[in-house]
Structures are given as structure tokens and as C-alpha cells.
Amino acid sequence: xxxxxxxxxxxxxxxxxxxxxxxxxxxxxxxxxxxxxxxxxxxxxxxxxxxxxxxxxxxxxxxxxxxxxxxxxxxxxxxxxxxxxxxxxxxxxxxxxxxxxxxxxxxxxxxx
Length: 112
Fold this sequence. Notes:
By secondary structure, the chain is of the alpha+beta class. The protein is built from 2 helices and 4 strands. It has a domain at 20-85. The chain has helices at 2-18, 79-85; strands at residues 21-32, 37-48, 59-67, 73-77. It has a 4-stranded antiparallel beta sheet with strand order 1-2-3-4.
């Protein structure tokens, strides 16, 4: 019985010290390149809910966003810049951009 109680306290302590990891992002700078393109620089770090102090490690990132006529933003990470800013991090290549669906004619047939 005492072993179960001790194990319960030990298990609760491990859970409380680790907590759930959460990624936080803070925009640090914006630069409008022209009327439709904006570069956004932000920092990112992971923290836990139960531990007050973060690990102190953060990474810097840059995104290029193209603003459409309807004010929607198409943002793409700038992987080469991220790798220069974070030489110790292994940053994966971004996923390829989705191709646009072919436009349809008024008769409902795809245009070629």
C-alpha cells in the first residue's frame, strides 16, 4: 500500500514538473516590401504550463506574405533565411505549394 502511495506522489510530481508543452510566437518586426508583399519576422519558443521559467531557447523566423485583393494573405516561410538565423537548428523544408485548380468555363467544362 505504501508503495502505491509513494508511486502516486512520484507520478504526480513528474507530471507537474513537465506539464504540457506549448509553442508561443511573438511578431518582432514587419516590413512592407511593396503594396502587396510584407515580410513578417517573429520569434518562437516552447514553454510548459506548470514550469514558470522557459528553457530560454527561441528561434527566429521570417515569412513573406502576399496580400490578395480580398485582403487574404498567402504566407510562405523563408526557409533559407530561417536557416541563416538559426544555424544550430534543423529546419525542415516547407511543404510544396498546392497547385490551383483549373478554371472552369461557363458551360462547366475545365478550360485548357
